[in-house]
Amino acid sequence: MSKPIIIVNCKTYPQATGKAAVELAKHCEKAAHAYKADIRIAVQATDIAIVAKAVKIPVYAQHVDHTAPGQSTGWITAHAIKTAGARGSLLNHAEHRLGVHDIAKAVDALRHERLDSIVIAEDVHRLHEIDLAVPGATLLSIEPPELIGGNVSVSVARPEIITHAVVATTKPLIIGAGVKTRQDLDIALRLGAKGVLLASGVVLAKDQTAALKNLLS
Ligand code: G3P
Q1: 9-33 pLDDT, tens digit each
Q2: Of 176, 172, 171, 169, whose CA–CA distance to 153 is shortest?
Q3: H or E stretch covering 41
Q4: What is the chain's mean pLDDT, rounded?
Q5: Of 216, 217, 214, 200, nearest to 16 (Cα)?
Q6: Domains of the chain, residue spans
Q7: Which of 75, 79, 171, 196 meets the CB 3.0–4.6 Å disulfide criterion with 67?
Q8: pTM of the model
Q9: Could you tell me the distance, in angstroms and rounded to a whole number, from the CA of residue 195 to the centre of ligand 1?
Q10: How far is the CA of 69 from the centre of ligand 1 (A)?
Q11: Which superfamily does 5-216 belong to?
């Protein structure tokens, strides 16, 4: 039985920016050892290098553009995040939406650099569309936007979304939105997900270590 995948998304929260991102990554690494969990952290592009240098757990970007390295200005390339030490990137988060064509090209750019791609959809229809149009994605994820940042997880509020999403995809699926507790994680795993994506429950916690314990113990 493989370990559940836990991806902590720092978003652009000040509580997970710069040195705070490094501190959170260290808490995640300690929890990964303590609970024998596969914990990964998605940081802002400006924090990839400092976080990847500080921890051994996988560090992801939150987005990459499909632009090829070279004569282009102001884009985030797969080559650049690889050079900074990233192991992959989230794509198409509800807070940074892309068209399917751009998702496919960004996944190709990540694959070229041998990096993971975690493509996120807002509903089961979109998830199925992405599964068909983007065969090279590493993991797929579903996050109902209306539950993101809230106090009730998708596991508790809309478990049927997880069940339908598992059936709608050919790839391993992780779920997110409101996830905070061991119950949220266990329901997701029982329904066929391979792990969870979460943010506010850990990043905004007064005690981030205790929040990780609340999810994993
Ligand atoms: O990418 C995961 C994130 O969107 C979930 O946010 O605050 O509901 O855990 P949150």
Answers
A1: 999 999 999 999 999 999 999 999 9
A2: 176
A3: strand 38-43
A4: 97
A5: 200
A6: 5-216
A7: 75
A8: 0.97
A9: 13
A10: 30
A11: Aldolase class I (3.20.20.70)
Q: Which of 63, 93, 128, 164 is labelled catalytic?
A: 93
DSSP H helical segments within the chain, as ranges? 19-34, 48-54, 78-84, 100-112, 124-133, 154-157, 159-168, 182-190, 200-203, 208-216
With vertex at residue 119, the alpha carbon angle to CA 42 and CA 30, rounded to the nearest 5 degrees, is 30
Query: CB under 8 Å to 205, separation ≥6 — which residues?
Result: 211
How does pLDDT run across 35-49, given as a tens digit for each residue?
A: 999 999 999 999 999
User: Could you tell which of 7, 91, 143, 161 is best to mutate to test the pocket of ligand 1, judged by most ligand atoms within 8 Å of the CB?
Assistant: 143
Q: How far is the C-alpha of 54 from the C-alpha of 36, rounded, in Å? A: 19
Ligand 1 atom closest to 143 (CA): 4
Which of 5, 6, 11, 44 for a ligand 1 pocket mutation test, highest count of atoms within 8 Å of Cβ? 11
**Would you place residue 110 in the very low, low, confident or very high pLDDT band (cuts 50, 70, 90)?**
very high
Terminal CA-CA length for the chain? 17
- What does the alpha-carbon distance between residue 100 and residue 89 come to, in Å, rounded to a whole number? 16
Instruction: Point out the catalytic residue in the list 66, 122, 143, 164.
Output: 143
* Ligand 1 proximity of 199 Cβ (cutoff 6 Å): yes
